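Hi support team,

I've been running sequence recovery on a batch of backbones for a student project. Most finish fine, but this one hangs at about 90% for roughly twenty minutes before it completes. I'm not sure whether the input is malformed or the queue is just slow. I've pasted the structure tokens below so you can try to reproduce it. Let me know if you need the job ID as well.

Thanks,
M.K.
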């Protein structure tokens, strides 16, 4: 899961305002990353809580922000899956929802999974709520550049 943002300021702008705009933008971006992390955790479905706990962020540079998940199945939840056959060796085992009994099989026809685009909802909230712009504005106000 990744979303790229490229913010550029001219050297002339930095000279006029007398501040290192890159550092200010970086602080705003770090705040936005933390908010994206929180929103994504809120948007993620909860069955066991593992997916929500696995969501985290990294900040490799100002131009590249990655929302990461250690739960490899996040893609299946985000995009869904088509009907498919699951085979097991030696056996597949599961507890029946209706009868509560253990069931065993070598092959199961899985009906597929409906998409639950929690990452897309996160990105839409970040854009729709102007989170990036508001964080940049807050940092410029904090530095005394905007009033």
């Amino acid at each position: 899961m990744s979303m790229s943002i490229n913010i550029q300021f001219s050297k002339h702008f930095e000279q006029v305002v007398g501040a290192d705009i890159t550092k200010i933008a970086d602080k705003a971006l770090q705040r936005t990353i933390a908010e994206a992390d929180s929103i994504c955790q809120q948007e993620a479905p909860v069955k066991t809580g593992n997916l929500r706990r696995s969501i985290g962020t990294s900040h490799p540079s100002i131009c590249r922000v990655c929302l990461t998940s250690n739960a490899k199945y996040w893609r299946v939840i985000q995009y869904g899956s088509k009907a498919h056959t699951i085979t097991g060796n030696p056996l597949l085992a599961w507890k029946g929802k209706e009868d509560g009994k253990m069931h065993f099989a070598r092959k199961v026809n899985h009906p597929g999974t409906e998409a639950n685009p929690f990452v897309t909802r996160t990105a839409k909230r970040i854009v729709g709520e102007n989170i990036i712009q508001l964080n940049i504005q807050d940092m410029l106000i904090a530095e005394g550049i905007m009033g």
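--
Follow-up from support: It reproduced on our side and the slowdown came from queue contention, not your input. Residues 83 and 111 are 4 Å apart (CA to CA). No action needed from you.
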